[in-house]
Structure formats: structure tokens, C-alpha cells
Design brief:
With 418 residues, the protein is of the alpha/beta class. It folds into two domains: 158 residues, Lyase, Ornithine Decarboxylase, Chain A, domain 1 (Beta Barrel); 180 residues, Alanine racemase (TIM Barrel), CATH 3.20.20. It contains twelve helices and 21 strands. The strands form three sheets. Strands 4, 14, 15, 16, 17, 18, 19, 20 and 21 form a nine-stranded mixed sheet that branches. Strands 5-6-7-8-9-11-12-13 form an eight-stranded parallel barrel, surrounded by six helices. β1 and β2 form a beta hairpin. The longest helix is centred in the middle third of the chain and has 19 residues. The chain is globular and about 70 Å long. The structure holds ligand LLP.
């Protein structure tokens, strides 16, 4: 459920008409509903209320500090993968004791920064990284709380680019090496093994893969405890799928019902790293039709947003629902490619997509763009990044301003002898 609804053919975000916001800020822009963000966080949080748990929002899904702040106010932690994401999470007021640091290429500088902030734990992805964290922690005369990210080798049945828990994947440590690595970690003075971690992929639409992998890591946690390790956290990662078009996505309580019993006797706090499920359907991208163009074989709707603004269709062939912001009665349906101005054939927001006839100047909403939308956007083709607007009831706030042409060259320098 979300707060983007049509009333008499006009799209609203909470109590505001999307077309009125477009009038004020111009297009394209990202638009988020505060209500939806909060509700989605609460639904996930409440689904696991019977079990001690921490919901860490995956900052890569949506990194805007205002959004992180409103989730922090709800009690969210954060899953970060870089010094930049850690900086954002802290700036937003997220409690460092609820921050987990994942990612397989942490630098010594990033490790030191996170240790000084007192984060909950590092999710460690290789034995060399384990050694480096030990070294940095010892230099700071401290101990780093760690979990090893294990690769449970389960098929999450999702797009290959976002599957992470298979044998072939670059992520995590093989399950069969995990025990030995933990024993190494236990002996190193700069490390304190406190958890186990997995993340098997993203946009997963069934609980089966989670059940298989959680069973494996909960068994691992038990074995580690028998070796005397003080394992207090089982981090089940993220990846809970959502509805983009007609997918059937399980609700959070479905996962809770399936997974909580597997973790019940673990005596551990469950950590979840949830991105898409919280912010995906809490945001849309609003774009304006520039031209209709009839090619020899295809009909194109050229809009002012492009792959640099939302790369998911180009990168994963992801299908997002696209509808006019104002629906005209009786508009005939046509099959079109919705394309942007970028000079790449892969620059499309939809292909062979059935949509009502539209004309230049019409506004379109690209739905389910609140996760991996703005956060993956770029300046390709020297296009300024678009603004982000947050609606709360009848109020709209600019939470990121549209970049200017000057912003595009900020940080660049022309050598004096040129
Ligand atoms: N934890 C870790 C370690 C992750 O790598 C990710 C996402 C998450 C949690 C959150 O996953 P979520 O709950 O949002 O599915 N750009 C792609 C998704 C890449 C996901 C990367 N890792 C997309 O647009 O579909």
C-alpha cells in the first residue's frame, strides 16, 4: 500500500496533486511520500516484533539525508557500504550502535573511520579483510566487532546481476571455510566475533531461499557458540522483493512467520538490511513528454528523464509501471518505447509498453522508483541531477535541489597553461 493514488483520474501524493508540484519544481523530479516510508518501515519492524531485532535501512537504496533522518526517527539503523554512506547515516542521526558496515572492498581509512564512530559491527567478506580490520583495530587500541558474511550457496531466483549468494558470486566466504575463519578471528586480539551475516540477493519474491539460507547460518551460529564465541547477532541481510507491476510479493509478516521459528532458539538479535521494501514504492519519478516520434518499426515517446536519472530499465531490463499523471477519459492505448534524450540505444524507461496516447507537455509518473532510483543516478551526457521532493500531508519539501550547469563543472580544473 502506498500514498500515490488517483482521484478522479488525477495522481496525488498524499494530499497534493503531482501536477501542482511539477508546476513549482519543473521536471524531471523524484517525489517521495513520508507517510509511505514511515508505514513501510513500521510494517517491517512490527512483523518481527516477537523477536529481538534491528531493522537497518540499506542506505544504497535511497541515500538522501532527509529520508535517513525520518527513518532514524522511527528507530531505524543503517546498512552502509562506504565511508560516504556511513557519513550520511551519522549526519542523519542514525545511532552508530545500529549501523552495520558491509561491502567487499573496505579500505583501511574506512575501517578506521567506522571504528572511531563505534558502529555495531563489520560484515567481513574475506580473510585478508579480516586481517586488515584486526590490524587497524589494534593500532587504535580497540577491538572490532565483526560478523563474517557467509555465502550459503542458495539460488535466490532473481536477476543474475542482483543475485549474491551463489557459489560463483564475489560476495562472502564459502560456508565450508566459515568455521576455520571464525576460529582465526577468535584468536586475533583486535577482533571480536559477535555475529554471522548473509545477503543472498535482491528483489527476491519467495521465502524459500531465505528459509534455506537462514537455516544454514543459524546452524553456524550454534556451532560457533559451542566453540565459546559470544555470537549475539544473526544478520539475515535484505532482498525482500516488492511489486513493480504484477509480481506477487510476500508481505513482511509472511517472512517473519517463516523465518522467526528458525531463529527462535538462537538467543540472538536478528539484524535485517532492508532497502527496496521500505523505499521502493514510496517514490516515483515524474517526467514530461517532449515528443512523439514514429520510427519505421516502433513508436517512441521521448521524455525529459533518461537512463542517467533511472538506470534500472537499461541495466536490468526492469519494468516499472508508467502512467500519465492526469488520465484523460477515452484515450486509446498504444504500444510505445518510452525513451530519454541520452545518446545510447539502452536509454529507455520502458520498451513495448502499453500506455494511453500522450502528447508533448503531458506528465508521466514512473512508479516504484524510491529505491535504486536517485541513488544510482549520474551526470552522464552532462545532465544535471534532478531534485528530490518529500511530501508530508499537504506540505512538499525540497530535500535535494536540482543541480545547476555550474554544479556540473564544480571540482574540475583547467591547468593554467591550457
Ligand atoms: N544488504 C546488502 C549487503 C546488500 O548488498 C543489499 C543490496 C541490501 C542489503 C539491500 O537489498 P534490498 O533489500 O534493497 O533488496 N541496484 C539493484 C539492487 C542492488 C542491490 C545491492 N545490494 C536494483 O536496482 O534492483
Amino acid at each position: 500500500m502506498n500514498d500515490f493514488v488517483y482521484r478522479d483520474g488525477v495522481l496525488f501524493c498524499e494530499e497534493l496533486r503531482v501536477q501542482d508540484i511539477a508546476e513549482k519544481v519543473g521536471t524531471p523530479f523524484y517525489l517521495y511520500s513520508r507517510n509511505t516510508l514511515v508505514r513501510h518501515f513500521q510494517v517491517v519492524d512490527q512483523a518481527f516484533s516477537e523477536t529481538p531485532h534491528i531493522v537497518c535501512f540499506s542506505v544504497k537504496a535511497n541515500s538522501n539525508v532527509a529520508i535517513l533522518r525520518l527513518l532514524a526517527n522511527e528507530g531505524a539503523g543503517a546498512d552502509v557500504v562506504s565511508a560516504g554512506e556511513l557519513f550520511r547515516a551519522l549526519k542523519a542521526g542514525i545511532d552508530p550502535k545500529k549501523i552495520v558496515f558491509a561491502g567487499l572492498g573496505k579500505t583501511a581509512g574506512e575501517i578506521e573511520y567506522a571504528l572511531r564512530q563505534g558502529i555495531l559491527m563489520f560484515n567481513v567478506e574475506s580473510s585478508q579483510e579480516l586481517m586488515l580490520i584486526n590490524h587497524v583495530a589494534q593500532n587504535l587500541d580497540t577491538q572490532a566487532p565483526i560478523a563474517l558474511r557467509v555465502n550459503p550457496d542458495v539460488d535466490p531466483k532473481t536477476h543474475p546481476y542482483i543475485a549474491t549468494g551463489l557459489k560463483q558470486s564475489k560476495f562472502g566466504l564459502p560456508m565450508k571455510e566459515a568455521m576455520a575463519e571464525y576460529e582465526v578471528a577468535q584468536k586475533l586480539p583486535g577482533l571480536n566475533p559477535v555475529g554471522v551475516h548473509q545477503h543472498i540477493g535482491s528483489q527476491i519474491l519467495e521465502s524459500g531461499p531465505f528459509e534455506d539460507s537462514v537455516q544454514k547460518i543459524s546452524n553456524l551460529a550454534k556451532s560457533l557458540k559451542l566453540l565459546g564465541m559470544d555470537i549475539r547477532y544473526i544478520n539475515i541481510g535484505g532482498g525482500f522483493g516488492i511489486q513493480y507491476t504484477d509480481e506477487k510479493a510476500p508481505a513482511p509478516d509472511h517472512y517473519a512467520l517463516a523465518l522467526a521459528p528458525l531463529l527462535a532458539d538462537s538467543d540472538c538479535t536478528i539484524v535485517m538490511e532492508v532497502g527496496r521494501m521500505i523505499s521502493g514504492n514510496a517514490g516515483i519519478l515524474v517526467t514530461k513528454v517532449l515528443y512523439n516520434k514514429q520510427g519505421e518499426e516502433k513508436r517512441f515517446v521521448v521524455v525529459d528523464a533518461a537512463m542517467n536519472d533511472l538506470i534500472r530499465p537499461s541495466l536490468y531490463k526492469a519494468v516499472h509501471q508508467i502512467s500519465p499523471v492526469v488520465r484523460e477519459d477515452g484515450a486509446g492505448e498504444v504500444k510505445v518505447d518510452v525513451v530519454g534524450p541520452v545518446c545510447e540505444s539502452a536509454d529507455f524507461l520502458a520498451q513495448d509498453y502499453g500506455m494511453p496516447e500522450v502528447k508533448p507537455g503531458d506528465l508521466l509518473a514512473v512508479f516504484t522508483a524510491g529505491a535504486y532510483g536517485f541513488s544510482m543516478s549520474s551526470n552522464y551526457n552532462s545532465r544535471p541531477r534532478v531534485p528530490e521532493i518529500l511530501v508530508s500531508g499537504r506540505k512538499a519539501y525540497v530535500i535535494r535541489y536540482r543541480e545547476t550547469l555550474e554544479d556540473l563543472v564544480r571540482g574540475e580544473a583547467i591547468p593554467q597553461d591550457l
